[in-house]
Input
Amino acid sequence: MDDKNLAQWNTSLKFFRDNHTFLKECRNDVGGHFLDDAAKYALENVEDTVELFEIYLRGKGADVKIKFAYYFVAQALVKNKDKGQSVEEFLQKKYFPFLLEACDKAIQAVQVFAVTHLFN
Output
């Protein structure tokens, strides 16, 4: 690996090492690893609503839209915001910029891997 690729690789690795806990929590809060902490937080913080579900009659059957699931997952998404921080501020200033940077670092690491291991 030349110096430029090594620096890019190390920058990406450092980012993921330094942010491992937060990235893991993000994945667990909204991904396939939806854990008890996210569910507990969502249940404790979801707003009361009368629109929990909608039923659409379709011929002899029906479709159901479970609105509660949307609110439930949306609450879990912001579980890691700081106390006193608004949802909008958390999403705009921390969550989305973090995920964009994580994608950028992952792309950089894959590019370095491809250049140094697949084409040599």
Summary: The chain has one domain: 3-118. Strands lie at 53-58, 61-66. The first strand starts at residue 53 and ends at 58.
